[in-house]
Design goal:
The structure holds 2 protein chains of 2 kinds.
Chain A lengths: L1 E5 L10 H12 L2 E8 L3 H9 L5 E6 L8 H12 L4 E5 L2 H13 L5 E4 L1 E4 L2 E6 L4 E7 L4 E5 L15 E4 L9 E8 L12 E5 L9 H11 L2 E4 L1 H5 L20 E5 L5 H4 L7 E6 L12 E4 L2 H11 L1
Parallel strand pairs in A: 1-2, 1-4, 2-3, 3-10, 4-9, 5-9, 12-13, 12-14, 14-15, 15-16
Antiparallel strand pairs in A: 6-7, 7-8
Helix pairs in contact in A: 3-4, 5-8
Chain B lengths: L1 E5 L2 E3 L21 E3 L1 H15 L5 E8 L4 H10 L3 E6 L5 H15 L3 E5 L10 H9 L2 E12 L2 E8 L2 E8 L2 E5 L11 H7 L4 E4 L12 E7 L8 E3 L2 H11 L5
Parallel strand pairs in B: 1-4, 1-6, 4-5, 5-11, 6-10, 7-10
Antiparallel strand pairs in B: 2-3, 7-8, 8-9
The chains are: A alpha/beta, B alpha/beta.
Bound molecules: flavin-adenine dinucleotide (FAD) (2 copies).
């Protein structure tokens, strides 16, 4: 048994999401290898080698992998992955982009976004926006899986001392190129890793009003999220969307402000430990999942909350 | 340039599905079905490309049950030119991608547009797999698409923000929510769509085996959350969070 874990990183540091994937790999069992594909990503390899429970780190350091272009990375993963029983990546936009492509190259039916490992060939995954949990079984020679981070407690970032091996293979499929990116900069914790998340919805009325949430967030060390309606309306950027088709979060505390609680939003946050809803409509479906509901006008309640925390 | 759009018939996004009593799936009896919302966005994008003179013909393909003809007709009413239904129930993404690849080989579209994910299976696989099998570049989770000079520039919604890539044509694009706002079909266009060509095929016509690779053992309802309480004031809320839930200090 052997598991290949694809490292999520930005060429400078290993992203925490990788640790959740390693945890899923540990549940599957077998020797764990981390594959780091990037450009100038030596520091990432060093960090990957320290992750507890990892036996080996493979590094493909080449310009072709600098921006995680799916065409190039999937060819590498399909090539390297042939020798493994399981290939895992985080269910992030990076993993979701290249892993199905790698699976198709390997002629494997991938299993998306597992939320549980029953055994090495049987997995659980949410379907229908999390309204049902399917247990699926694969008899394929290789299992290709993306892992829902919130479902697995992260492996320890320190404690391992894996051997690092450089790969000389480099593939540039030659069909795609990177043009540019706009990465949101924030001093707040990352949405998917934060212990507390405060999200605003259409009820916030505009982008400026989100500053009320930022103030509370900064006092609590929280991340700020949003509903699709708030993103569609241009209040905040797309990277803040929580939901079935946005980010999946499961913090200790989730505070939904001016969010009605559509199924697609609930899909992204209903595994949070404690849910608070602030909404002026007492019939809003968000109250059905809230541990603590406050029927109030957010424009009064949120500033008050800021004072009291 | 011909544009191929893959559309899927799914449960309507407003339906809250229930797990079937036998735990073998979800209960879909008398449930409203619709075109997957991301596929509606894909059709709309193709129609806009045609309106701009970039696309010359729009071919819609669905793999699904007989009833998926309804979703193809909807796409035809929105502006697609012809449709192909490949009749197969419960085909999995790899098999769907193989069928679509065979159709791509025959039809040679310059651009293929799929949804990023379907709201029932939530797999987010078909587009990427089709791109792999055809060797096309892929612009997934697109929020902006510009075709020019034999290339397509795609702005993608990624976890950190936005990324723009350029792909050689033919290429594959998968749609995210903010790519466009789909129009509604007008009654005259719905009538006209009834006369547009719709071919019915079988997976065997393309030599594809649709036997499932992954078996669904059981389907269960997620763990229910225990009922919460209403608090009257912000003070009470903060006190509960500090002393009862102990999630803030
Ligand atoms: C394919 C598809 C995918 C989707 N994916 C997602 C997703 O990933 N994430 C997501 O969030 N949505 C998603 N949606 C959209 C989802 O269905 C809802 O439309 C959306 O979540 C609604 O956002 P909202 O709750 O902010 O807005 P609304 O439903 O309009 O709710 C606004 C709420 O604010 C309250 N309010 C207004 N003013 C005040 C005030 N002054 N004080 C207190 N409360 C106030 C109102 O009572 C109301 O409950 C998706 C939909 C589809 C079809
Ligand atoms: C509870 C449950 C149990 C299931 N059990 C089985 C089973 O045992 N065996 C089995 O074979 N299948 C089964 N299925 C069906 C299967 O899981 C998915 O529906 C199928 O794999 C397609 O995945 P997706 O639609 O999520 O694809 P995604 O990759 O999420 O779809 C993305 C895009 O690809 C395109 N696309 C996807 N599907 C089609 C299509 N059919 N036609 C045209 N374009 C398409 C669309 O543009 C779509 O927007 C089951 C489904 C459910 C919900």
């Amino acid at each position: 048994m052997s598991v290949l874990v694809y490292a999520e990183h930005d060429n400078a540091s290993l992203k925490a999401a990788t640790l959740n994937v390693v945890a899923a790999a540990q549940k599957i069992g077998g020797e764990i290898t981390i594959l780091v594909a990037g450009s100038g990503c030596g520091a990432v390899a060093q960090q990957a080698a320290k992750v507890a429970g990892v036996a080996k780190v493979l590094v493909a350091d080449n310009a072709a992998y600098a921006h995680q272009l799916a065409e190039n990375v999937s060819a590498l993963v399909a090539e390297v992955g042939k020798g493994y029983k399981h290939i895992l990546a985080a269910a992030t936009t990076t993993g979701k982009n290249f892993l199905p492509r790698a699976a198709a190259l390997l002629d494997v039916q991938m299993i998306s976004e597992i939320s549980g490992v029953v055994n090495a060939t049987t997995f659980q995954r949410p379907i229908y926006a999390g309204n049902a949990i399917a247990t699926v079984e694969s008899a394929q020679a290789i299992n290709v899986l993306t892992v829902r981070g919130t479902a697995f407690d992260p492996a320890a970032a320190e404690g391992g001392s894996a051997a690092i091996e450089n790969l000389s293979t480099a593939t540039d499929a030659g069909v795609s190129s990177f043009v540019g990116e706009e990465i949101a900069k924030s001093d707040r914790p990352e949405l998917t890793a934060a212990k507390i998340v405060i999200s605003g919805g259409r009820g916030m009325q505009n982008g400026d009003n989100f500053s009320m949430l930022y103030k509370v967030a900064d006092k609590l060390g929280a991340a700020v999220g949003a509903s699709r309606a708030a993103v569609d309306a241009g209040f905040v950027p797309n990277d803040m969307q929580v939901g079935q088709t946005g980010k999946i979060v499961a913090p200790e505390l989730y505070v939904a402000v001016g969010i009605s609680g559509a199924i697609q939003h609930l899909a992204g946050m209903k595994d949070s430990k404690v849910i608070v809803a602030i909404n002026k409509d007492e019939e809003a479906p968000i109250f059905q999942v809230a541990d603590y509901g406050l029927v109030a006008d957010l424009f009064q309640a949120v500033p008050e909350l800021e004072k009291l925390v | 340039m011909k544009v191929l759009v893959a559309v899927k018939r799914v449960v309507d996004a407003n339906v809250k599905v229930r797990v079937a009593a036998d735990n073998r799936g979800v209960d879909l009896t008398n449930v409203k079905m619709a075109m997957n919302p991301f596929c509606e966005i894909a059709v709309e994008e193709a129609v806009r490309l045609k309106e701009k003179g970039v696309a010359t013909e729009i071919l819609v393909v669905a793999v699904g049950p007989k009833e998926a003809q309804e979703q193809i007709r909807t796409a035809l009413a929105l502006g697609a030119d012809r449709g192909i239904l490949v009749e197969a129930a419960d085909a999995q993404p790899l098999a769907i991608a193989k069928i679509l690849k065979a159709i791509v080989d025959q039809e040679k579209p310059g651009l293929v547009i799929t949804g990023k994910q379907s709201i029932d299976g939530d797999n987010n696989q078909v587009g990427q797999m089709l791109a792999a099998l055809t060797g096309m570049g892929q612009g997934t989770f697109a929020s902006e698409v510009n075709v020019a000079d034999g290339k397509v520039k795609v702005t993608r919604e990624i976890d950190g923000g936005l990324q723009t890539v350029e792909l050689k044509l033919p290429a594959l694009v998968s749609t995210d929510l903010r790519l466009n706002e789909p129009r509604y079909a007008s009654l005259p266009n719905i009538m006209k769509a009834k006369k547009k060509p719709l071919d019915i095929k079988a997976p065997a016509d393309f030599g594809v085996d649709v036997a499932p690779r992954v078996k669904t053992v059981k389907v269960e309802a997620p763990a229910a959350r225990k009922a919460g309480i209403k608090v009257k004031t912000v003070e009470e809320l903060v006190a509960k969070l500090k002393n009862e839930a102990k999630v803030i200090q």
